[in-house]
Amino acid sequence: FAAAGLPLILSDAIGASDIFLVPRKNGFRFEANNVNCLAECMKKIINSSNKQLISMGQVSTNLAKRITPSTSSDNLMSLIENK
């Protein structure tokens, strides 16, 4: 979703959130299994202006650009080599 240029809502149990989410810049993080916290994050997105949503999407796109085919293959190779 970051590569698609969208605002994000990610739980704190998602490891990729450290790479793709800057809270309040391109979305929101909620405590895993906390329905109330998730609902609050969803309300924040719903209540955001179009300008804010577009800005969050741009931040998401920029963060996603850090992941390239080269970095992906390097990560995969490090997993294989560490076995």
Task: Give an overview of the whole structure.
By secondary structure, the chain is mainly alpha-helical. It has four helices and two strands; from the N terminus they run E-H-E-H-H-H. It is flat, with a radius of gyration of 15 Å. The termini are far apart. The mean pLDDT is 93.
Brief write-up:
This protein is mainly alpha-helical and 83 residues long. It is 53% helix and 10% strand.
As residue ranges, the low-confidence spans are: none
Mean pLDDT over the residues: 93
Q: Count all strands and give the number.
A: 2
**In what range is the share of β-strand residues?**
5-15%
> Termini distance?
30 Å
The geometry reads as flat
What percent of the residues sit in helical stretches (DSSP H or I)?
40-55%
Report strand order across the widest sheet: 1-2
Order of helices and strands: EHEHHH
Biggest β-sheet description: 2 strands, parallel
What's the total helix number?
A: 4
| Class per helix and strand makeup | mainly alpha
* Radius of gyration, whole Å: 15 Å
